Amino acid sequence: MARISYQLYCSRNFPPLSQTLKMLSDAGFAEVEGFGGLFDDLDGLHAGLETNGLRMTSSHMGLDLVEGDPAKAIAIAQKLGIEKVFVPFIGSEERPTNTAGWLAFGERLAEAGKPLQDAGLAFGWHNHEFEFAATESGDMPLDLIAEAASTLSLELDLGWVRIAGHDPAAWITKYASRLSAVHIKDIAKEGECTDEDGWADVGHGIMDWPAIHAALQEAGIDHYVLEHDNPSDDARFAQRSFASVQKF
């Protein structure tokens, strides 16, 4: 049975956090994934998780934090019980433009992650769609990152893989040994959910979940993190998506 987590970024527009945590607990979640905007009040976050019987087993952390103050990143993880840390994004102005640049970026990630790995944390990269835009040599940036950083784990965002025009199941199989979690996201049919940037509740869009779930099971991946980048109703998304994943 998969571990079903919830990326708290989904609820960033639905304060207060205490209400979100209760909603998730009531919906049946036991795990959540954090993001950088939550770490200003660690004591309050820790108390809210405990009150609602939730564990923050993974989190996104910006490269500026991981690279610039690894001791702080480790302290946050230890305070909250985080086991896996993923760098989720770099802005367009920071992105390499060629194969050599992406290989260098992979090496940079590997170096940045060493202190966290030495502290017993899993450390990895979370993709968007730009890692699937081929370089001048025809290489995929995600492949280059993985090649240059052999110790790096991956949190494959299946929605962005599909948005980029690729088969999520194929990429799950390709990187089965490197995946420590996946983002479970769905995409609305064309013309639907335009007020939600075209994303859908899990199980209510176009993603081929039987094939994806089979690939995940074959790969031995059991950490499913549900995400919707812009839900108009986070409780609806959480409840319907949790129910869908339970039926996979």
UniProtKB/TrEMBL annotation:
Alphabetized InterPro entries for the sequence: IolE/XylAMocC-like, Xyl_isomerase-like_sf, Xyl_isomerase-like_TIM-brl
Single GO molecular function: isomerase activity
Highest taxon, organism lineage: Bacteria
Keywords: Isomerase
Gene3D superfamilies cross-referenced by the UniProt entry: Divalent-metal-dependent TIM barrel enzymes
Domain Xylose isomerase-like TIM barrel positions: 24-233
UniProt xrefs under SUPFAM superfamilies: Xylose isomerase-like
PANTHER family: HYDROXYPYRUVATE ISOMERASE, INOSOSE DEHYDRATASE
Name used for this protein in its record: Sugar phosphate isomerase/epimerase
Annotated organism of origin: Yoonia phaeophyticola
Taxonomic lineage from the root: Bacteria, Pseudomonadati, Pseudomonadota, Alphaproteobacteria, Rhodobacterales
